[in-house]
Amino acid sequence: MTTTQWRHDRGPSTVVEPVARYATTAILIHWSVVVLILVAFPLGLYMHGLALTPDKLRLYSYHKWIGVTVFVITLARLAFRALHAPPGLPSSMSVWERRAAQAAHGLLYAFLFLVPVSGWLMSSAMGFQTVWFGLIPLPDLIAKSKSLAAMLWQLHQVLNFLMLCLILLHTAAALRHHFLQRDETLKRMLPWLRRGWR
Questions:
Q1: What's the predicted TM-score (pTM) here?
Q2: Is there a domain that residue 15 lies in?
């Protein structure tokens, strides 16, 4: 966003207002979760088609470790957000865009909890305890049940694909703001973007 200021010696000039960016901690948490999801999702697709071998069980452990880490990081992010209000949305955004952005953020937080928890429940129902990084055993949330495990597997899969769709929409909206609407939305989370990239 810019404002026009009159200068008596040189005429009108454009003054660039500083971008209201997210705190560094919030930025690091955001991109850490992005990287973890980019690893966990294709890993989940890949290991699903493998035969039951020690290698597959090891990949399942890695997948679960990532899921628990996303869950913990999301808790930390919500705690940080409660103490540090996020920057306001650009004034150029319409009312519907603001409401859509708020709804998308709320749903993303929900998925970042629901997806790991559904995986944790599924693992418990299958009779495989989750041991975070092979060091911290987590309690089984439910008793072993083959039928329930099958239902939870379906739920976990659906939640993952719904979250992926929402992430793609979120990404498309951010790119639209940066390259088409040419506002400062993306720079709030990527403050090092240069103006010349537009």
A1: 0.85
A2: no
